[in-house]
Amino acid sequence: MTDPETSREVNLRTSSIVRIAYHQLSVMCGTHDPITPTSVSNDTADANARNITCTGRLLALPVFASASAALCNAYAVTKNSHESVAAILGSAEDGVRAGLEFASPVTDKIANVLETPFKAIDNAVCVGLDFVEEKMPSVKLPPDQIYASMKDGLRNMFTSALETFRLLFGGTKNQIEDLSVTKQTVQEEIRKVSS
């Protein structure tokens, strides 16, 4: 009398209990926790192995470093939000890892053939980064400081524009008001003269 739905629920419940127990045991023992995301240092190490420096320089900029940290944190929070999400994302990570391992012989051959163009692109990007860092030193500042300075700059620009408009058109408003007062006095004078 076991229908497939009931046996599936029991299997899912059992695997969930085992996963929870393993998680608690690994936390108590201080061993590797399977739910925490793996670091992305393998990509950086592979890029550095091929002498590509632009990726390291880009990731070292505070804006990119904070953005990647925020993305990693969001991924970790999402993955830790529920055990089923952790299982799904863990399976997806394993699938991507297996796909990369399967494709690595082909991609290694392609990378070896394209090594010279990659180095030229890397050099061009590094020259561009040097130019940007020279012309805009604020790129090396933390993002919150960049935001504050941009906000202050925009506020100063709009304040000066408002002051300019006030100086240009404030006098005109007073002249128009004076003209309306003068028009009223002229009309009163005309009435006096005609009566």
Mean pLDDT: 75
List the secondary-structure elements in sequence, H or E: HHHHHHH
Q: How would a textbook summarize the main sheet? A: none
Can you count the beta strands?
0
**Helix count from the secondary structure assignment:** 7
Beta-strand residue fraction: under 5%
Shape: elongated
The secondary structure category is: mainly alpha
Q: Radius of gyration in whole Å, from Cα?
A: 34 Å
Helix content: over 70%
Poorly predicted residue ranges? 32-48
Distance between the termini: 115 Å
Number of domains: 3
Subcellular location: Lipid droplet
Family: Belongs to the perilipin family.
Pfam families: Perilipin
Keywords: Lipid droplet
Descriptive overview:
- With 195 residues, this protein is an all-alpha fold.
- The protein folds into 3 domains: 1-34; 36-140, no CATH class; 143-195.
- 85% of the residues lie in helices and 0% in strands.
- It contains 7 helices and no strands.
- Helix 3 (54-60) runs parallel beside helix 6.
- The N and C termini lie far apart (115 Å).
Summary?
By secondary structure, this protein is mainly α.
List the helices and strands and how they pair.
Layout (H helix, E strand, L loop, with lengths): L3 H26 L11 H9 L4 H7 L1 H19 L2 H31 L1 H21 L7 H52 L1
Helix pairs in contact: 3-6
